[in-house]
Amino acid sequence: MNLSAPTRWSSLFVMACLLAGGAAAQSPDKAAGAKKNLIKLAPLGWIHGQLPFSVESRVGYERVVSGRSSIMGSYSYLSTNYPFNFIGSAALSATITSALLANGHGHVAWTDVETRTRGHRFQLQYKRYLTKRKSAPEGFYLSPHYSYTTATYRSEVKDLDIRFSINTTNHNYNLLFGFQEILGRHFVVDVFTGLGYRNKTEKTYDKHGAYTGTQNKEIPLKVSSGLNIGWAF
User: Fold this and answer.
1) Which of 8-17, 23-32, 208-217 has the highest mean pLDDT?
2) Which one of 13, 32, 87, 230 is most buried, counting C-beta atoms within 10 A?
3) What is the pLDDT of residue 23?
4) SS in 3 state form for the chain?
5) Burial 106-116 (b: 16+ CB within 10 A, else e)
6) Is 33 exposed, middle or buried (0-12, 13-18, 19+ CB in 10 A)?
7) Residues whose CB falls within 8 Å of the CB of residue 172, separated by 6 or more in sequence, listed in order
8) Prior bond to 220 cis, omega within 30?
9) What is the rounded distance in angstroms from the CA atom of residue 223 to the CA atom of residue 91?
């Protein structure tokens, strides 16, 4: 049976969580009351997502597997970033209108462009904590990180009855450096940055769903940074 990429990675995450539970049971943290489970959200994702014209509603789970390490996985639902979409659509509308006027279409005063985004993102990472005076899940850490994103953009130039869609897939491989702290008894703050490699593909389709081409890949080197907040227990 062939599984889709999101299904494969979600399955791997579930297996990793089960293995993590077993490892934690065999090697319990010596600190009494130590927090081993963390549920996280990404507030900056509600402002702007990883992909253009998108926002992310993300939930993540981190599980401590030893005194110095943990694993974490997360799922994001991507939807339309309406403020960014308005600015980008206005700029694209102005460009199209200028081009039409320059080619003799003097009756065109403005053309309205609308873009809608839908997609999913899966992430998996291993975190190795470096601060000697603290144990996982607190302190500075290094983290190999992988994410898979798939999204569909549907755009329409309303005045010209032009519709098209772009299907995007994005594989990211990163090495992150971050710091995580539990404030009080439960509140978690996690900040990170790092470098990575991405493999992004964009395929375009016309309004009838016919394939029209593949966009050029973006520069593979990328810089990542972010903020997570959550609850430890």
Assistant:
1) 208-217
2) 230
3) 45
4) CCCCHHHHHHHHHHHHHHHHHHHHHHCCCCCCCCCCEEEEECHHHHCCCCCCCEEEEEEEEEEEEECCEEEEEEEEEEEECHHHHHHHHHHHHHHHHHHHHHCCCCCCCCCCEEEEEEEEEEEEEEEEECCCCCCCCCEEEEEEEEEEEEEEEEEEEHHHCEEEEEEEEEEEEEEEEEEEEEECCCEEEEEEEEEEEEEEEEEEEECCCCEEEEECCCCCEEEEEEEEEEEEC
5) eebeebebbbe
6) exposed
7) 145, 146, 147, 148, 149, 196, 197, 198, 222, 224
8) no
9) 26
CA distances to 40, 181, 182, 202, 229 from 190, rounded to whole Å, are 9, 7, 9, 32, 6
Average pLDDT over residues 36-44: 97
Q: What is the pLDDT of residue 11?
A: 53
pLDDT score of 107? 54
Q: Report d(CA 230, CA 203) in Å as an integer.
A: 36
Distance from C-alpha of 64 to C-alpha of 35, rounded to nearest angstrom? 8
Place of tokens 């279409």: 105
Q: What are the structure tokens assigned to 87, written together?
A: 């600015």
In this prediction the pTM is: 0.76
CA distance linking residue 197 with residue 184, whole number of Å: 36
Q: What is the pLDDT of residue 106?
A: 54
